[in-house]
Amino acid sequence: MNGPQSQDAIRRSKGFLGLVEKAGNLLPDPVMIFVWLILGLMVLSTIGAHFGWSASIPYSGDEAPHWATLDNGVVTYTATSLFTAENIGRLLVDMPKTLTGFAPLGVVVVVMYGAAVAERSGLFSALIRSSLRNAPRAILTPCVIITGMVSHHASDAAYVVFIPLAGLIYASVGRHPLVGIAAAFAAVSGGYAGNITPGQIDVLLFGFTQEAARIIDPEWTMNPLGNWWFILAIVGLFTPVAWFITDKVVEPRLGKWGGSPDTELQAELAKSEITPAETKGLKRAGIVAVLVVAGFAALALWPGYTPLINEEATGPAQLQPFYAALIAGFFLLFITTAIAFGTAAGTIKSDNDVVKMMGEGIRSLAPYLVFAFFAAHFVAMFNWSRLGPITAINGAEILKAWGLPAPLLLVSVLLFSSILDLFIGSASAKWSALAPVVVPMFMLVGISPEMTTAAYRMGDSYTNIMTPLMSYFPLILAFTRRWDKSMGVGSLLALMLPYALSFMVAGIGLTAAWVALDLPLGPGAQVHYTPAS
């Protein structure tokens, strides 16, 4: 049994993980991190302007890109102090415009309108419970792992509903419930980069990627499907890896479970049963989902009427309107299937319920809206100072001089993001700060924004389960103590470490191989990028 709280705290403070926890606890909130970044950027821009920092590249266009000067076929970026009258005026006068022009903000709000209804109507919860309840014992582990990675679309329900349910189901078949919780946690959080279809996280991260890519290419537009094949490959790779670790490493270490499916356990399982009304709702939601997908396909394929196809373009560029419309597509898919489910299950009785759910979803975005205000100004001010393209151009020249192969460059981004993930849990917070530098820098050495984003996502994934600073870590610890009162922070970290190390090795190998083989990342998305110049 676990000792007093003081002993638990002493155990947590020991070793490398103890140092990580202490260092992470010293960090401020992500919002305040951006406040300090902005202040530091203002000082740095003044230093750069004083010393005349600049960077130049050949340019074949007739008009200079934004924030640059063009002279005899050469574009030059020169550092500008953010304390100049022009920039201070821009900061104060355009403050509302800077926020509303922040691409990820509109994307997140639109998708959240639909996702909020899907979550609060019970659709996400019912999908998770129905996908796992009747999984055969022999393939229970891979079912848990795949469902866990797919459940990212369900937002908080993936943690609150799915992970404890996995423990219950393992216990119901006589297996150790901590094994189920470990496998589910590994899939949901450690496999965060993988999924079967793109979703909200793709739209969010590519919003930041778009802002950064436009430093080099003002016409670059995000493709929410730009990592589809890559994230699908992660599911295919991580599933057998996690299956092996669960059944051959974690379960033998925990030993045979001493409990049995008692009355209390059966009662808890009964609560997770899919009701007849929910079954009816899921069937309706499935029909509506097919109709929405078919409708979008028709808008791209119907002869003589293709609003989602650019008939004047050639090649992959023809599909750009279709890719851009996927944000609206996610919204329509979520809200229509949620209404179909909710009206059948009884969770939606009128249009007022839908409006209320949408409002609650926006209220839950309040922390993100605060974060977006400061992130938007950091990105904008980075552009005003010209430090972004200067850093990217000079950094690209250094990388070219070193002659490092593309796989090694991308693995370095992966490892750097995984180190940051030990201290800063928010994927969007880290990427909004990193993207303005690494995306344009890698574009200049021939690596596409989609590939850089994919490498970042991989590094931001597997470390989630090996840091006590992850926002859901205390919740997972509470789930484990339902079955074993002696579980502490160190116990949970030790339980998850085999998954994290295995995912790290597999993730690095997959990223390096993907670049080396030059495989497409998704529809219209390639590993390499050819600068316009």
3D structure, described in words:
It is a single chain. This protein is mostly helical and 533 residues long. It is built from 23 helices and three strands. It has helices spanning 5-12, 15-26, 30-51, 85-93, 95-100, 103-120, 123-132, 140-150, 157-172, 177-190, 200-213, 228-254, 263-271, 276-301, 320-345, 351-364, 366-385, 387-402, 406-421, 427-444, 449-459, 473-481, 489-517; strands at 54-58, 69-71, 74-78. A three-stranded antiparallel beta sheet has the order 1-3-2, with helices on one face. Helix 12 packs antiparallel against helix 23. Residues 1-12 have low confidence and may be disordered.
The share of residues in extended strands comes to: under 5%
Largest sheet: 3 strands, antiparallel
- List low-pLDDT spans: 1-12
Instruction: Quote the distance from N terminus to C terminus.
Output: 66 Å
| CA-atom Rg in angstroms | 24 Å
Side-by-side strand order of the widest sheet: 1-3-2
Mean pLDDT, to the nearest integer, reads: 82
Summing up helix and strand content along with how strands pair, one would put the structural category as mainly alpha
Shape call: globular
In terms of quaternary structure, what is this? single chain
Order of helices and strands: HHHEEEHHHHHHHHHHHHHHHHHHHH
Share of helix among residues?
55-70%
Number of helices: 23
Report the strand count: 3
